[in-house]
Request: fold
Amino acid sequence: MNKKQKNKIAIKHQFPTGILVLHNKLVFRGIGLGYQGTSTGEVCFNTSLTGYQEIISDPSYAGQIINFTFPHIGNVGTNNEDLESDKVWTKGAIFNSEITSPSNYRALKTLNEWLKKNKIVGLTGLDTRSLTNFIRDKGAPKGTISNNKNGKFNIKKLTNMSVKWPGLNGLDLAKEVSTKKNYIWKGFKTWKKEVGYEKNTKTKFKIVAIDYGIKKNILRYFSDFSCEVKVVSCKSTAAEIVKLKPDGIFLSNGPGDPAATGRYAIKTVQKLIKLNLPIFGICLGHQILALALNAQTKK
Reply:
């Protein structure tokens, strides 16, 4: 290979093929990866050091583009076990550094392959901590992320997409991600090395989990405590839940505006509170519980 050919290859790999355009016209260029396409959502950040597959597959991130501050994302690949949902609802993912080859005995696919399969637009090569500082100081912006191998982008069009997107305020996403059919959790416990997912065979307590966008690992933890969990739709009424005769009620995590979900969820939770049963909420579920007790939420 001669020097001229090497230079051509180098230029090819440095070519910006990905972009993030915010509603305030700020533009971030980088290298596109994952699914080739364009997606609009709220740009948020995540500072976790591990668990990127679990984070991206968490229904709580529906309608959002996740900006990872930790630079080494993708180094353990992806597998079929660490999914928090059967469908990935995240709008996009942003990384600091190039994804390396996975180094983990459980890896089945690279992160890039997994993003393509789940139609998640990815972008790498950004100063993700700088973007995080911007979000921290100014609030989560609306943004459009795009991956195009030819590197040609219509900035004006992408900006308009970000501006016109309504945002998460007033948006009830729980009804989108919630189960359409009630079911009993299959009973798998949390994952353990050299054992995997063992099944719970004991039923010490019966729990009803209201699904606003529940993560599978929460259900696994209930199995660790010998609970049988019946997962019901976020639209389930108090009367329907009472018929299941639970020992306790769990209000799950989930995406969107709690006040919007609260239009139907608050009355249900208020009726359940009167039953004097233990009620436990996480994330969106915690906010719904607070609203039911006359607190207020704000972005």
About this structure: The chain has a mean pLDDT of 94. The chain has two domains: 10-167, 175-292. The domain at 175-292 is CATH 3.40.50.880 (Rossmann fold).
